[in-house]
Amino acid sequence: MTFQIRLSAIKLVFFSSISFVYSDLGPYIINPTPYHPLILKSQKEMNESLTYWEFFPDILDEVPPHVFQAWFRGDRRVNFGNKFTILHTDTPPYNLSWPVEEGEYYLFHLFDPDVPSKRDPRLREYRHWTVANIPGTNVEKGYVLAEYIGLIRNHTKDMLHRNVFVLYKQPEKLEFDDVVIKRDAPYLDRACFSHKGFAREHRLGKPIAVNFFH
């Protein structure tokens, strides 16, 4: 476990890492992984990257305060637009980290806003993964609303897709009537999602962490 002190808020924020594998019920914990260096970016650096990749205003209204930390197989870290392949993402990221506050619940989405393409995103947002009611970073204790799937296809030179992690701090532990999207669900069951609409419906406020890859 590592920690940092946010001097502006005079507040201790803990980062903890967990490791998990995929099951029919979603991700669950396995042995803890060795320490992985965190990606630390200033608000200016995050804003520059998100602006360059055209996140505002369709995907985000403002820059979240934190970086969502994720590592896929081969120790490939998600780092604001780096490129992955189907092989890298055929299993869920094996390590996730974000700042936590004691006693709070968290929710994250992984989605693609560029389906079928960035020029013609008529199926945006395409949901790859959603886990809610996560105590701290104990993802294995969360409630899986959409089971994980990786990249649908490898990218071409002219068609990069942004695959976006957004994290919310929930106001409380939530009850959901949503139908769980299974790993083998029909293609269109994951299409036309709106993380902003979902946040409004469940009073989640603004995302507190973000990261993305291609």
TrEMBL record:
Where does the source fall among the domains of life?
A: Eukaryota
Identify the keywords attached in UniProt to this record, alphabetized. Signal
Q: Name one Pfam family in it.
A: PBP
Q: Where does the record locate the signal sequence feature?
A: 1-23
PANTHER family, alphabetically?
Answer: PHOSPHATIDYLETHANOLAMINE-BINDING PROTEIN, PHOSPHATIDYLETHANOLAMINE-BINDING PROTEIN 4
Q: What is this protein called?
A: Phosphatidylethanolamine-binding protein
Species in which this protein is naturally found: Bemisia tabaci
Q: Species lineage, top-down?
A: Eukaryota, Metazoa, Ecdysozoa, Arthropoda, Hexapoda
